[in-house]
User: Fold Thiol:disulfide interchange protein DsbA from Conchiformibius kuhniae.
Amino acid sequence: MNLLKKALIGVLLGIGLAGNAAALTEGKDYEVLSKPMPQTQKDKIEVLEFFGYFCIHCKNLDPVIRKHVKTFAADTYFQADHVVWDESGHLGFARLAAAVNQAGLKDKANPAIYDAIFSEKVNFNDPGETIRWMKAQKSFDGNKLLTAYNSFSNQAQAKQMAARTAEYGINSTPTVIVGGKYKVLFSSNFVEGMKTIDELVQKVRDERGMKKPAAKPRAAAPKSKGAAIAGSVNR
Assistant:
């Protein structure tokens, strides 16, 4: 009986593994980079997006991927690099992207930045125009973003984005690379593409022999004002 159970478990596991392997199709869902690239954090799985604030497809992807990366397990992290194909035309955008990352304002600033480009025609490659726009912002802390933009490390981070753009041979946006190895092909829509990202993360995890960490604990729901008062009375 024990041998039968073991055999049955082995068959089920084999079916499960085969199903996972068949879920992704090379050439349709992803491409393998000709040369694996180093990650910023070697002990984790990197999901690296190359984007352009001037790219309408990046504008459409942005809210989808910003929401999705919040579901990543603890062994997976997201990094966003602005492409720099021409320093004279793109380095200013990369400086803005680096400032957004450094200030931790992606959720609030990105929608405003895309709207400014596509609706107001703001030229973020011009530092003077960028600074004036930051100072005028009311929907998020423009001064915090400006501080990051003017920081000592800002231009260095933008230059790093330029170096990675060249190193990875990025020629279109958006481009998403998982584990420094797999390029996501958005063959359907961006929502379906998030499933591809998850499956590629698991593929990298399996290849590296990593165990999937426990899910992140949910944040506790905020207490009502009445509950807080009652709690203070009972203490």
In short: The two ends are 58 Å apart (CA to CA). The beta strands are 30-32, 45-51, 76-82, 175-178, 182-184. Confidence is low (pLDDT under 50) at residues 3-22, 224-235. Residues 87-169 form a domain with the Glutaredoxin fold (CATH 3.40.30.10).
